[in-house]
């Protein structure tokens, strides 16, 4: 990477990391208050409605990613007119998306009775669902202007505003829960903070990119529209797959196992998604930098950058996964809550395995997005989405809760390895074997490390916070010694080491 690109990527990543860590602390305290005040039934409602509305996000069709990709080149060449054209289109499309989500969301209301059985929730279920629907709809207000900052490698600004309002939101929600126990006001605070966040970010863009606002906006050319439509077609089916993976599990669990189980799961997924969110923030912050790099078209350099990012991502996600597998159960049952809120170690393993396999491929996924390869293998997205739902419905009958997660994992692995094929065939024009070798080696090490440390911890009960901290130290030492032994002679390890030392000097 050039110095400017590296600087932008590092700044975006560091701001994303710091802001996410601050948010984690506050959101964790807020969830603790939520659990103590309202209980698992409300956690289940939160998880179920979030999944339902994730499905409605299909209406976005991946248009945002396609438009951000189209902005890389005009921003790099300071073509304000072209950027303004895409921003204007973004605005129009998202207005339609808000309307579509409203209509479909309201159409779901008559079917809620078949999905929700929550006798311990005193509020009207339809009213609560409508509050969640309103939150989803308003999240699209003014959001189109964020695309300019993301495409211009200034995602750190979006991160700062987002986390500021998230922290304000959680503090207000905690106060309301303690004083009033009102879940309705809790939901309204979230909606208000999301709208204010988008509005403030929009004002920032207006102030710092005035030429875009003032530019005379003509329609995009016919060829540009055709090209954009092709991208959206590919992304639309990818969106179907994403919705299937992220938006169906809690619905199926609620229907076949129970809403309380969804609430118990949400305490675990809060932790897995929180740490996963840190990593996603870091690597989503460098998407624009990779997009800027792909404009230069040096495939060998792009592949070299990808391998370095894969190694960094693999080591960090491996550490995260080993830590979650060996420490998550003890943390939830011994440190945070109690034995009422627990999942079996086998379920935790499948959850963690999915986190790992999703996470290690993020640089590759970022490279594909930044290169605009949206259309290839579009039907594989649909196949994987259908496969996930079918396997979910079959496996939940035979294996219960763990069956749902195994089904999602199978479909996801098939889907992600199609991504690998696309990147290496259409971007690098090379065999995928070298990438597969990296993945298999990292997976084997993560699993051996997890099972080995867990076997050790089975003989060391967690009796308090001090012993839990000791276990964290043990995981850290064993994992990173293993990484050093396995990878110390590779160029990727040397790059990572140099990067860390450079950051420490700062």
TrEMBL record:
Domain of life: Bacteria
Keyword Heme: no
Keywords: Cell membrane, Membrane, Transmembrane, Transmembrane helix
Keyword Transmembrane helix part of the UniProt annotation: yes
UniProt-annotated location(s): Cell membrane
Broad class of the protein's primary localization: membrane
Record-level GO cellular component terms: plasma membrane
Protein name as catalogued: Oligosaccharide translocase
Source species of the chain: Ligilactobacillus ceti DSM 22408
């Amino acid at each position: 990477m050039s110095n400017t690109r590296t600087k932008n990527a590092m700044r975006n990543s560091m701001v994303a990391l710091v802001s996410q860590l601050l948010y984690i602390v506050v959101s964790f305290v807020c969830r603790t208050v939520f659990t103590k005040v309202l209980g698992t039934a409300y956690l289940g409602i939160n998880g179920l409605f979030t999944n339902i509305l994730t499905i409605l996000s299909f209406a976005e069709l991946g248009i945002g990613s396609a438009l951000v990709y189209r902005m890389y080149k005009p921003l790099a060449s300071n073509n304000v007119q072209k950027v303004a054209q895409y921003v204007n289109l973004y605005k129009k499309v998202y207005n339609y998306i808000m309307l579509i989500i409203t209509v479909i969301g309201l159409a779901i209301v008559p079917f809620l009775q078949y999905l929700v059985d929550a006798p311990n929730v005193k509020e009207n279920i339809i009213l609560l669902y409508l509050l969640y629907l309103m939150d989803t709809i308003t999240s699209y207000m003014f959001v189109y202007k964020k695309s300019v900052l993301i495409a211009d490698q200034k995602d750190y600004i979006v991160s700062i505003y987002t986390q500021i309002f998230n922290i304000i939101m959680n503090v207000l929600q905690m106060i309301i829960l303690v004083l009033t126990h009102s879940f309705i006001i809790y939901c309204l605070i979230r909606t208000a903070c999301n709208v204010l966040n988008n509005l403030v970010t929009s004002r920032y863009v207006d102030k710092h990119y005035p030429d875009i606002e003032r530019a005379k906006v003509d329609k995009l050319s016919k060829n540009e529209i055709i090209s954009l439509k092709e991208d959206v077609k590919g992304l639309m089916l990818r969106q179907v797959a994403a919705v299937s993976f992220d938006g169906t599990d809690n619905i199926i669990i609620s229907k076949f196992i129970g809403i309380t189980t969804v609430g118990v799961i949400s305490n675990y997924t809060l932790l897995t998604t929180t740490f996963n969110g840190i990593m996603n923030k870091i690597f989503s912050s460098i998407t624009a930098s990779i997009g800027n790099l792909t404009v230069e078209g040096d495939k060998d350099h792009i592949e070299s950058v990808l391998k370095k990012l894969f190694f960094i991502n693999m080591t960090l996600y491996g550490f995260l996964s080993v830590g979650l597998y060996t420490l998550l159960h003890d943390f939830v049952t011994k440190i945070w809550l109690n034995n009422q809120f627990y999942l079996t170690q086998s379920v935790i393993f499948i959850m963690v395995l999915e986190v790992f396999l999703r996470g290690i491929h993020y640089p590759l996924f970022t490279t594909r997005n930044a290169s605009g390869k949206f259309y290839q293998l579009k039907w594989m997205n649909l196949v994987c989405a259908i496969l996930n739902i079918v396997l979910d419905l079959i496996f939940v009958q035979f294996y219960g809760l763990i069956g749902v997660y195994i089904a999602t994992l199978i479909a996801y692995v098939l889907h992600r390895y199609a991504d690998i094929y696309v990147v290496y065939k259409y971007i690098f024009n090379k065999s995928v074997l070298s990438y597969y070798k990296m993945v298999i080696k990292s997976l084997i090490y993560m699993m051996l490390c997890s099972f080995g440390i867990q076997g050790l911890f089975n003989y060391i009960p967690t009796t308090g916070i001090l012993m839990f901290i000791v276990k964290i130290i043990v995981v850290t030492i064993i994992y990173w010694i293993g990484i050093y032994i396995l990878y110390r002679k590779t160029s990727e390890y040397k790059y990572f080491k140099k990067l860390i030392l450079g950051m420490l000097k700062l």
